[in-house]
Predict the 3D structure of the following.
Amino acid sequence: MRVRVGLTAEKVTAVGAEVADDVGLHRVTMAQVARRLGVKDASLYAHVRSLEDLRGRIALLAADEKTLLIAEATAGLAGRDALIAFANAWREYAHEFPGRYAATQAPVKIDPELAAKAAGPRRAVALTYGMLRGYGLAEPDLTDAARLLRSTFHGFVALEASGGFAHARAPQASWVRSLDALHILLQHWPAPREAGSA
C-alpha cells in the first residue's frame, strides 16, 4: 500500500479529533477525515487500522491534552484552590473540545499496546488522587471521592452542553456553588459504615 508522504498516525488522529469536535465523536467517519486531509479513504488505513482504532487514538490524545491542562492549572495549589482549578480546567476542556472530551468519557476501545505507552490516563489518576490526598483521604475513600468528582464534573458539563439547564439562574452560579459544596464535603468526608449496615 502506498503511504502518502507526510501522513502519520499522529496527523490522522489530530485531524480526527478536529472532526470529532466539529460533528461529535460518534459521527466521525474515515471518509470525513480523509476529505479534510485531502487523501483517499484507503490512505488512512496505512496509519490507523479502523474507525474504532482512530477513536481510541483520539481518546488517548484527549486524555493527554486534558491532563496537561489540569496539571498546569493546579500546579502549586492545594485544598479548595486546587479543587476549583482542577474543576475549571476540566470544564474548560469540555467546552472547547467537545468531541475529544466525549472520547475521554465514552467506553472507547483502545489498543492495549498504545494504552500501555500513554501517560495521560495514568497522570490523570495521579493528579486526581494527589489533589484528594490534600484533604487527608486514603483508600478506599480516594477512589470513592474520585468517582464523585468525575460524576459531578461530567454530569454538569454534559447537561450544560445539551441545554439541560433551562432555569433562569445562570449555570456559572450553580457551578461555583457546587464546587463550594464539594469542598465542604471533602473536608468532612464521612467515616466508613460498619460492615453489614444499610
Q: What stands out?
A: Residues 51-74 form the longest helix (24 residues).
